[in-house]
Amino acid sequence: MPLKSKQPRIVPLEPPFDAGTAEVLDRLGPPIALFRVWARRPELARGVADWGRYYFSRQSALTVRQRELVIDRTAALCGAGYEWGIHIATFAEKAGLDAAQIRSLAAGSPADGCWDAGDRAVLEAVDELHATYDLSDGTWADLEHAVGEDGALDLLLVCGWYHAVSFTVRALRLPLEPGTARPDSP
What is the C-alpha separation between 156 and 31, in angstroms, rounded? Predict the structure, then answer.
C-alpha cells in the first residue's frame, strides 16, 4: 500500500478564479477539489465536461440508478473514498439507494439480498470488469438483458472512466469533500 501524504500532490486552484478558470469550472459543476485540479488545464477540463455532459444526461442509455451503481461500486473497489463520498452524498437518494444497498456497494456482494436481478447484473458486470478486465458470455448476456445493448456499452465506458477517476483521486491524495464519507465509514 502506498504511503499517504497529508497534502494533495497537485494543489487544487483556489478562488478568486480568473475568467477562463471560472468558465471551465461552470462547465464541470460544483468547484470540488478534483474539478479545481482539472481546471489547471482548461483544455482537459473542457474535454472532461463534454464527456460528463453525456453520461449525466438523459441521453445515456443507463438510468441514474444504473449509472450510480457502476460509479459507486467502481469507486469502492478501487478504494477511492473521495469519489465514493461525493457520489453517495450527491446521488444516492436520487438513485433510490437505501442504507443496506449503500453498505453492500461499499463492502458487500452482488449476491446480497438487497439487490433485484437487474441491479445484480449491473454489479456483477462491474465486479467482473474490475477483476478480469473482461466479461464472460454469461455476464454479458445478463447485463444486456438488464440494460440493453446500448446500456451495456455505456456501462463499459462509465466503469472504465471511473477507474481512471479513482486512480486520479487516489494518486492525487485529495482529501474528502466536506459532508462526505469514505465507503468504510458508517
Answer: 27
Of the candidates 27, 32, 44, 7, the residue with the CA atom closest to the CA atom of residue 82 = 32
Span 62-91, average pLDDT:
97
Of the candidates 107, 105, 106, which has an alpha carbon nearest to the alpha carbon of residue 122?
105
Sign for the pseudo-dihedral over CA of 91, 67, 38, 82: positive
The pLDDT tens digits of the residues spanning 43-52 come to 999 999 998 8
* pLDDT over 60 (residue 35): yes
What 3-state class would DSSP assign to 112? coil
Cβ atoms of 127 and 44 closer than 8 Å? no
Interhelix angle for 42-55 vs 137-172, to 10°? 150
Query: Could you tell me the pTM of the whole model?
Result: 0.93
Amino acid at 148: G
- The pLDDT tens digits of the residues spanning 96-130 come to 999 999 999 999 999 999 999 999 999 999 999 99
Q: How many CB atoms lie within 10 A of CB 40?
A: 14
Amino acid type, 12: P
Considering only CA atoms, which of 89, 88, 48, 90 is closest in space to residue 69?
A: 88
CA dihedral over 138, 139, 145, 151, signed as positive or negative: negative
